[in-house]
Design goal:
Elements (H helix, E strand, L loop, with lengths): L2 H11 L6 H7 L14 H6 L10
């Protein structure tokens, strides 16, 4: 799927009734990436969560 197709589908899903080209011509898109991390409760508790840190 191209970026243009993805944007067209999102615009349609949002319920915009007009032509998508008007929107595409004035959009500036920035792509962001996320990183998913995990931690066990035991590790989290050893850092003192939720009280601010070890020894608090």
């Amino acid at each position: 799927m191209t970026r243009e197709v993805a944007i067209r589908e999102l615009v349609a899903k949002a319920g915009y009734p007009g032509p998508c080209q008007d929107i595409l011509d004035c959009l500036e898109v920035t792509r962001y990436q996320t990183i998913v991390e995990s931690v066990s409760y035991q590790d989290l508790a050893s850092y003192g969560f939720p009280y601010g840190g070890p020894g608090i």
